[in-house]
Automatic annotation (TrEMBL):
Domain HTH tetR-type residue range list: 11-71
Gene Ontology molecular functions: DNA-binding transcription factor activity; transcription cis-regulatory region binding
One Pfam family from the record: TetR_N
Native source organism of the sequence: [Actinomadura] parvosata subsp. kistnae
Alphabetized UniProt keyword annotations: DNA-binding, Transcription, Transcription regulation
DNA-binding region extent: 34-53
Transmembrane segments: none
Protein name: HTH tetR-type domain-containing protein
Length: 201
């Protein structure tokens, strides 16, 4: 019982820090916002902030590891009759479904986070590092899930899919788009990429 209460309190604090950070990033700008300001907005100490996040960037990318692990798990649990493109499409669908479940962020905050990642130089740099690591792990996971697939083909498939989504969203992004608009664009890009990957199965 006590453990449950403690865990819920930690989750509320983490959520408060994420929401406070996004509000300040929107109002002041990412670079101009300090860690102390985020902590103050969330009504916690700077020391408490560091108990949850190592940096401002970590707040924005708070769910990256969990989403990657979910994708790897989906590959590992593929059905015997599931194709390469079938697995990739399922992973994308599940990722989009999670994004629209609003478990952590409101639709407006989720769209704001997406815009920040795609437009703030510091976040773009961090996103590239995370993207490289994620794509490599996904490629290896896909190769392991399909023993007949070479690592080169797996990497090409993952890179084509994620690259198509990222570039399409960046090319069409504007301040008026809702999260649903962004995800619809991403979904269309995924469909186009998947259609070109069907030679892999």
């Amino acid at each position: 019982m006590v453990e449950g209460l403690r865990e819920r309190k930690k989750q509320r604090t983490r959520q408060a820090l994420i929401e406070a950070a996004l509000r300040l990033f929107e109002e002041k700008g990412f670079e101009e916002t300090t860690l102390a300001e985020i902590a103050e907005q969330a009504d916690v100490s700077t020391r408490t902030f560091f108990s949850y996040f190592a940096s401002k960037e970590d707040v924005v990318f708070y769910d990256t590891t969990a989403r990657l692990e979910a994708a790897i798990s989906a590959m590992e649990s593929r059905r015997p009759d599931e194709t390469v493109t079938g697995v990739l499409l399922r992973i994308i669908e599940e990722s989009f479904e999670q994004a629209t479940s609003y478990q952590d962020l409101t639709p407006a905050d989720a769209a704001l986070r997406m815009r920040l990642i795609l437009t703030e130089p510091a976040l773009q740099a961090r996103a590239l590092l995370l993207l490289f690591d994620s794509q490599l792990r996904l490629a290896k996971g896909l190769r392991d899930a399909f023993p007949g697939l070479t690592l080169a083909d797996a990497a090409a498939a993952v890179g084509a899919l994620i690259g198509a989504i990222k570039l399409t969203v960046m090319a069409t992004l504007d301040d008026e788009q809702t999260l649903e608009d962004i995800l619809a664009t991403a979904h269309r890009a995924a469909e186009v990429a998947i259609s070109g990957l069907r030679t892999l199965g």
